[in-house]
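Appendix B, Record 12. Input sequence as logged:
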Amino acid sequence: MKTSAKWLRFTIFSLAFTFLFFSSAESKPRDKSRWDEKYATEKYIFGKKPILFIEDNAHLLPKGKALDIAMGEGRNGVFLARQGFDVVGIDISAEGLNKAQQLASEYGVSIETKVVDLENTDLGTNEYDLIICTYYLQRSLFPQIKKALKSGGMALVETYNQDYLKYSQFNKKYLLETNELLDVFKDFRVIKYQDFDNGQEAYSSIIAVKP
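Logged structural output:
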């Protein structure tokens, strides 16, 4: 009986480990396939224009090397390239980045794009003058963003906050908490911050300068 009990415990542990390992290993291909399928259309599903927070504050952003995290179809990164930035865009979806390159060609500018698993990447150290991350929330990237900026470089982040739940079903894990961005960048100099709620959507935005 003792041997059977030990064997049963071992079998349960082995099955649990196998499930967790393969669930994690398979999640990345599923994410990639899901986004590739979403972007596999001629239509730019999020449009070709940048978000207003970038467009309205472009004059504040330091020209130089810019990183667009989760670039998608490229609306924000291509806009920055049109303003004279040297843009690198990273995303898990090759389909999205192909459309970003097409958009750049349409406007007569050049961008660099890289297919990257954002959950297993290193953004480097003191490499960028500007890093933007919009409508993609992966909290483990915040320390990397801060490290990858040069002194005097700026981070620009915008995504939905928890008030968005009033208007749409959404995984709370991927929604900013109240003043979360202010806390994340408390060791930076915040030059712009907003909590936006127009009765249809709600999001938070920040521009912060690395000391």
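Helices lie at 2-39, 52-57, 75-82, 94-107, 141-148, 180-184.
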